[in-house]
């Protein structure tokens, strides 16, 4: 295997080009890489993301669809695909409802095999404790979602809900407004998917 047909080397080269603000070159690297490695979900996922951030939502969705055909449990591609659909003119309210429900149903199904507590579902309502509600998102530090959460989190009834925030971005954000508004702030950047799922299990996490 050479650097030209090794998905890891191709991802690294594309990432370096993108970091150097050479998005066209990064996209070409990934497209050439996919010619050699057409079954790489990771190459398709990164190409989809780079097309997404350069304004080519329709091509990005096509990449995410191909990645999900290879690996239906590729959760990042599923989430980014759902985001991209909002930029397609034919994606109306009915389509949005349908796609969000389908995504939520798939996520719920993928979590059914998680180990359960002997005491039952930890997030089930009980009079002696609040419901644990978890929020998970990437790019808390540079995304408009930060403005949404700054308004949303303080509005929760803190007697009824214990708010857990899972931040998938590097850096220490424990002093941020979102961290202060939550009962618990959990940095999960770099954590493996199985470990994330185990961490999310006690809460009714929203992805």
Question: What do you see in this structure?
Answer:
The chain has 207 residues and is mainly alpha-helical. The chain has 2 domains: 7-110, Tetratricopeptide repeat domain (Serine Threonine Protein Phosphatase 5, Tetratricopeptide repeat); 131-200. 50% of the residues lie in helices and 10% in strands. The protein contains 9 helices and 3 strands, in the order ααααααβαβαβα. The chain has helices at 7-19, 23-36, 41-53, 57-70, 75-85, 93-110, 145-152, 177-181, 193-200, and strands at 131-138, 161-168, 184-187. Strands 1-2-3 form a 3-stranded parallel beta sheet. β2, α8 (177-181) and β3 form a beta-alpha-beta unit. α5 packs antiparallel against α6 (93-110). The chain starts with 6 loop residues before the first helix and ends in a 7-residue tail after the last helix.
Q: Could you name the key traits of this structure?
A:
single chain; 207 residues; mainly alpha; Serine Threonine Protein Phosphatase 5, Tetratricopeptide repeat; 2 domains; 9 helices; 3 strands; 50% helix; 10% strand
Condensed summary:
The protein is built from nine helices and three strands, in the order H-H-H-H-H-H-E-H-E-H-E-H. It is mostly helical and 207 residues long.
């Amino acid at each position: 295997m050479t650097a030209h047909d090794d998905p890891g080397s191709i991802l690294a080269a594309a990432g370096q080009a993108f970091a150097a603000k050479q998005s066209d070159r990064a996209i070409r690297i990934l497209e050439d890489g996919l010619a050699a490695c057409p079954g790489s979900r990771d190459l398709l996922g990164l190409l989809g993301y780079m097309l997404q951030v350069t304004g080519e939502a329709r091509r990005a969705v096509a990449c995410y669809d191909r990645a999900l055909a290879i690996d239906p449990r590729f959760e990042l591609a599923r989430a980014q695909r759902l985001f991209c659909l909002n930029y397609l003119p034919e994606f109306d309210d009915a389509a949005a409802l349908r796609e969000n429900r389908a995504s939520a149903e798939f996520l719920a199904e993928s979590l059914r095999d998680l180990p359960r507590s002997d005491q039952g579902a930890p997030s089930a309502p009980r009079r002696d404790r609040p419901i644990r509600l978890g929020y998970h998102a990437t790019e808390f530090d540079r995304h408009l979602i930060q403005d949404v959460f700054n308004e949303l989190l303080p509005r929760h009834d803190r007697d009824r809900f214990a708010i857990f925030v899972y931040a998938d971005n590097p850096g220490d954000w424990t002093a941020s407004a979102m961290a202060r508004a939550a009962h618990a702030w959990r940095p999960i950047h770099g954590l493996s998917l199985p470990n994330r799922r185990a961490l999310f299990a006690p809460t009714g996490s929203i992805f």
